[in-house]
Design a protein that fits this description.
Elements (H helix, E strand, L loop, with lengths): L2 H26 L4 H24 L9 H6 L1 H17 L5 H13 L9 H17 L4 H10 L2 H4 L8 H8 L10 H11 L6 H8 L1
Length: 205
C-alpha cells in the first residue's frame, strides 16, 4: 500500500469515528427546518464520497432492480472477458464490429426512403441511444464498441437492460489500449467519419 493511500484511509477512518460518536446525539436531537436542510446537504456530500470510494475500489453498483442486474449478468461478463483479453494480451477486437459500432454511434443508422414506419421508429430509438452513448468517456465509448455489436443494442434491442449495461461499461480508471487502436480510430476519422466533430473530439481527446 502506498503512503498516499495509507494517509487517505487514515483520514477517512478518523472522519468515520467522528460521525459514529455523533450518531446517538443526532438521533435524539429535535431538528428545525434550517437544520434539516443543512443536514440534507451534508448527507449528499457523504453519499457522493461513498460512491467515489466504491468506484475507485470497483465495488460500485448503481441502484437498480436486482432482476435487471441479474438479467444482464451474462452480457456483462462476456463484455468483461472481451475487454480483459484485449487489454492484457494487446489483441485488437473484431475490427468489422468495432468500426460499424463507432460509425453507428457517431453517424447514426443509415436511413432509406423505402423504410417502413416500424423501421423508422427503430432508427429513431437507435439515434436516441447513440446520443446517450456519446456521453460516455472516450474509454467508455471504445469499450462499448468492442463489447456490444450494434445489432445487439440498436432499436428496441436489449430492452430494459440497456441502461444497466451503459452504467456498467464506464471504466473507473483510464485504460491502456493496444497502440494499433489509435490507428484504427484515425482511419475512421479520415474515411467514414470524416468531418464528424464529436468523433474528432474522441480521437484527439
Amino acid at each position: 500500500m502506498s503512503a498516499m493511500a495509507s494517509s487517505i484511509i487514515y483520514q477517512l477512518k478518523s472522519v468515520l469515528q467522528g460521525t459514529e460518536a455523533l450518531e446517538v446525539s443526532l438521533s435524539e436531537v429535535h431538528l428545525s427546518q434550517e437544520a434539516r436542510t443543512e443536514l440534507d446537504m451534508i448527507a449528499d456530500k457523504f453519499r457522493a464520497l461513498a460512491i467515489m470510494i466504491e468506484k475507485k475500489t470497483q465495488s460500485f453498483k448503481p441502484q437498480r432492480m436486482d432482476e435487471i442486474w441479474e438479467k444482464s449478468k451474462e452480457r456483462r461478463e462476456k463484455a468483461e472477458r472481451a475487454l480483459t483479453n484485449i487489454l492484457t494480451q494487446n489483441k485488437l477486437p473484431d475490427l468489422r464490429v468495432f468500426r460499424k459500432n463507432l460509425t453507428t454511434i457517431f453517424d447514426g443508422p443509415a436511413k432509406y426512403q423505402h423504410d417502413s414506419n416500424g423501421m423508422k421508429s427503430k432508427k429513431v430509438a437507435t439515434e436516441k441511444r447513440c446520443e446517450r452513448l456519446q456521453q460516455l468517456s472516450a474509454d467508455g465509448i471504445v469499450s462499448w464498441s468492442i463489447a456490444y455489436p450494434s445489432c445487439s443494442w440498436a432499436g428496441g434491442a436489449m430492452s430494459n437492460i440497456f441502461d444497466c449495461l451503459l452504467e456498467d461499461i464506464e471504466p473507473n480508471d483510464a485504460l491502456d489500449w493496444p497502440p494499433e487502436m489509435s490507428e484504427v480510430l484515425k482511419e475512421l476519422q479520415g474515411k467514414s467519419l470524416q468531418g464528424n466533430k464529436a468523433f474528432d473530439k474522441l480521437v484527439e481527446g
